[in-house]
Amino acid sequence: MGSLISLILLFFLCFSGVLPLQLVSSNGELEALMEIKQGLDPENRFLSSWTPGCDPCSGCFDGVACNEHGKVANISLQGKGLSGRVPSAIARLKCLSGLYLHYNSLTGEIPREIANLTELSDLYLNVNNLSGDIPSEIGNMGGLQVHLCLFLGVSWLISSGFLVFCAVWLCYNQLTGSVPTQLGSLKKLSVLALQSNRLAGAIPASLGDLENLTRLDLSFNQLFGSIPVKLADIPSLQVLDVRNNTLSGNVPQALKRLSEGFQYGNNTDLCGVGFTSLRSCTASAHLNSDRPEALGAGTDGLRTSGMSTRDKPESANISGHCNQTHCLNSAKSSQVAVVVGVIAVTVALTVVGLLSFTLYRRRKQKIISASDSSDSRLSTDQAKEIYRKSSPLVSLEYSNGWDPLADGRDGNGVPQEVLQKFMFNLEEVESATQYFSDVNLLGKSNYSAMYKGILRDGSLVAIKSINKTSCKTEESEFLKGLNLVTSLKHGNLVHLRGFCCSKGRGECFLVYSFVPNGNLLQYLDVKDGKGRILEWSTRVSIINGIAYGIEYLHSSKPNKPAIVHQNISAEKILIDQWFKPLLSDSGLHKLLADDIVFSTLKASAAMGYMAPEYTSTGRFTQKSDLYAFGMIIFQILSGKRTVTASMKLAAESNRFEEFIDGNLGGRFSESEAASLAKIALNCTHEYPSQRPTIETVIQDLNKCSTSS
User: Fold this and answer.
1) Are 143 and 155 within 8 A, CB to CB?
2) CA–CA separation, 387 vs 463, rounded Å?
3) How distant, in Å, are the alpha carbons of 346, 494, 519, 542, 604 from that of 489?
4) What residues does the Protein kinase domain cover (predicted)?
């Protein structure tokens, strides 16, 4: 009876139009919002408009929207630079239906109280640095209607009742514990991706109850135990990725139907019949597979330390009559054997290492490779060793003895001369950068470094070094990507002069023409005379140039397939001496490992360039490039780095003073501004099917310039 009364009261508060506004916008909600502000923005840098003396429903609270009954229904604070924590006070906004906190720098755990928001249909916490366990209470949120997205260095998404949890980059993930068994209660779940975390424990067999699951990604974690047979029985399952865990046992035969959709690499104890790269199972493995799969965590989730016996995955009890004493003796014997084995292996490796080093020293002088000879000189200069130990690509010799150019081919049927004309030797690269001096270092990231250099002919270049571990692991795939990158030639793309790959350094260097005027980002948010203000005609010219660069990438030509850039942003658009825009990093994703590509998206996602459908599909298309291009148009028109919803609304109604850069002082063409704003709105349409092609955009741009 009490529950019924509570529901009736909640319904009355949320949907009754009888109460006066002053009562509906209660002090309780205002107090909750102020606590939320303190949690999300403790330094009051971004939510200064949230003040106690203002009605949240009057429009003075930035990012807060109310329903028609005066109750807080949406909080939209994505990409605001928030660096606090998600407070539990959010649970006091009982009529909240949408919470958008994605693309910030929030830390801490996900408050379990969020599960108490019975009206919540959209929850976006993606691209943050949240930590802790995945709240098991989420499994009880059966009322979720549209989207649940938790990007914690990883991200979740529940769309129409389904959940997506996509990894960003291992460095940013801090999730621990196990996969909650309660996720098996989300019966409408379509996609569950928990890759690249620190999740431990077993794969819950309860996930096999998700009859609508089409994709399950548990790769790059610390999961152990067997693959539950129930997963193979999910009728709609198309993709199962369990790579890079410590799984063991017999792989269910039914997973063969997934073909390439089943990925299981780097689980050395898995076995099975009919799977490429899997060994045949022993009797013990079959016994293990016949045992029930691990049930996973309890209510609170499996911890990485202090695990109870009942929480650990079951393994085969090979000895049916094993008493306690015998088991202990067996365990001790196994430990002794392991210690002896480790000592033997260590001694053997030491001897082999010494012999190898001696042979290496004797043969080193005979090596003709210029890269290796110059590496021996550089190895003594520790001050200039920047990426030596974590080096990127390889010098076209990824593995020992591998030389794809030795027989005149590059491993993909491409004649040697096609790549030969682009090849630099390491000595040229070292000389150009003064042996990678810090003075010439333009910037670096987790996977690469950029140096300014001068070639012997006097031309300025920018040299990007990429470490081997950040590149495609398959030599053929890397060479295929390298061949594609060298084939790109267009007036609005940064010109690739060549490349150099060093086996000794474990790096590959891409040599580009130097672009003197920086990137487009430097021309945004110009204040107090600090920075150059672009004239209107220059802005229009830059927009046109970017469009032509995208058109070239998207077009299919005899010697070039259609390419999706994937990471178009103001930072990737360089400005030359004539203020012509040049797209950089075109085709670079073809060289890099998938995880590295995804990690580079975090910065651009925070700026709003990522198309909304990517969160659910995990794929880039030409239409996602168009979305990023539309955002860039808004940035160029407004002169701002951040594109707001109010800016788009102003563009829809041609309120120029609200979305055209005030630094122009009114010196712009209203007709051109209106046309460009319409193109930007079309490109950033929520639905990709409603966005134009780049060819249509260029036609509209031409009409715009003709009419003006």
Assistant:
1) no
2) 14
3) 52, 9, 20, 18, 25
4) 436-708
Strand partners, 559: none
Specify the DSSP class assigned to residue 640: -
* Listed range (292-301, 491-500, 569-578) with the worst mean pLDDT: 292-301
State the pLDDT at residue 649.
95
- Distances 75 to 25, 54, 64, 138, 645 between C-alpha atoms, Å: 15, 16, 5, 20, 13
Domains of the chain plus CATH, in order, are 2-311 (3.80.10.10), 374-513 (3.30.200.20), 520-707 (1.10.510.10)
β-pair type (64-66, 122-124): unpaired
> Which pTM value belongs to this model?
0.49
Report which secondary-structure segment, H or E, holds 649: helix 645-652
**Each residue's pLDDT tens digit, 678-698:** 999 999 999 999 999 999 999
Q: Can you tell me the distance from the alpha carbon of 173 to that of 107, in angstroms, rounded to the nearest whole number?
A: 11
Over residues 286-314, the mean pLDDT reads 39
CA atoms of 567 and 620, how far apart (whole Å):
9
- What is the sign, positive or negative, of the torsion defined by CA atoms of 638, 643, 645, 651? positive
Distances in Å between the Cα of 200 and the Cα atoms of 149, 272, 312, 422, 705 are 22, 23, 10, 46, 59
pLDDT value of position 283: 64
Quickly tell me which residue has 């909304």 as its tokens: 612
Residue 197, classified by CB atoms within 10 Å of its CB into exposed (0-12), middle (13-18) or buried (19+), is: buried
* Residue whose token pair is 């990690």: 599
Q: Which residues contact 58 (CB under 8 A, 6 or more apart)?
A: none
Distance CA 554, CA 547 (A): 10
- Contact (CB, 8 A) for 192 and 213: yes
- 245 Rama sector, left if φ>0, alpha if ψ -120 to 50, beta otherwise: beta
Adjacent-strand bridge partners of 132: 175
CA distance to 126, 158, 591, 702, per residue, from 167 (Å): 10, 15, 20, 41
pLDDT band at 265; cut points 50, 70, 90: confident
The helix or strand, by DSSP H or E, that contains position 239, with its residue range, turns out to be strand 239-241
DSSP state of 147: E
Q: Which residues contact 572 (CB under 8 A, 6 or more apart)?
A: 519, 565, 583, 584, 585
Distance CA 692, CA 662 (A): 29
Which among 152-161, 167-176, 499-508, 527-536 has the top mean pLDDT?
Answer: 527-536
Contact 637, 539 (CB under 8 A): yes
For the segment 655-672, what is each residue's pLDDT rounded down to a tens digit? 999 999 999 999 999 999
Cα 493 vs. chain centroid, distance in angstroms?
24
- Can you give the pLDDT at residue 388? 31
Specify the DSSP class assigned to residue 600: T
10 Å CB burial of residue 410 (0-12, 13-18, 19+) is buried
DSSP-derived letter for residue 42 is: T
Question: Residue by residue, what is the 3-state secondary structure of 496-561?
Answer: EEEEEEECCCCEEEEEEECCCCCEHHHHCCCECCECCCCCHHHHHHHHHHHHHHHHHHHCCECCEC
